[in-house]
Amino acid sequence: MKIICIGRNYADHIAELHNEVPSAPVIFMKPETALLQRGQPFFIPEFSQDIHHEIELVLRVSKNGRHIDESFANNYFDAIGLGIDFTARDLQAELKKKGLPWELAKAFDGSAPISPTFKPVAEFADLANINFHLEVNGETRQTGNSSLMLHPFAKIISFVSKYISLKMGDMIFTGTPAGVGPVKMGDQLEGFLEGEKLLELGIR
């Protein structure tokens, strides 16, 4: 399986990082070794002094496909969960300054915790109105809704599949809302999807 991530997909997050609004989805990848599952703790890597949390809705790809038409794209995922795109912000800034890829800041081991539970698509009344949020030590840090995405699920699926074949079991991180910020040792993170806690992990 592979982890496909969409960057700069919420206008307020783009603004807080002073980035340009992209005309097409911004794509980067994480390897399978980035996955953290079943509530395993996240260990702050020694190469960064500024790890940021980025809560995201995650799509679980349910069948193989390539060159998928946008009108059929929602048939290619069967469940939605939560994930955190941990980012070494200091390293990312250094790489961006040099015009280099982001992978070292985004794709390191353990940088992609996902919820142990994914909710079936059929349980959502409207895929364009899904609420989610992240709490750090009981305080809400990020709040998002799928209606605020610059590129909705179907467009993401269609766009990605023009370049990269999708396979059953792939995960697609769909972007993070505003409110990203640093984590520190001892923090406890909890992710909620439509008010239900799906994701919980500690920072070590």
UniProtKB/TrEMBL annotation:
Q: Which GO terms describe its molecular function?
A: hydrolase activity
Q: Which organism is it from?
A: Hymenobacter segetis
Under which name does UniProt file this protein? Answer: Fumarylacetoacetate hydrolase family protein
**Keyword terms, alphabetized:** Hydrolase, Metal-binding
Q: Which PANTHER family match?
A: ACYLPYRUVASE, ACYLPYRUVASE FAHD1, MITOCHONDRIAL
Question: Which segments constitute the Fumarylacetoacetase-like C-terminal domain?
Answer: 2-190
- Pfam families tied to this protein: FAA_hydrolase
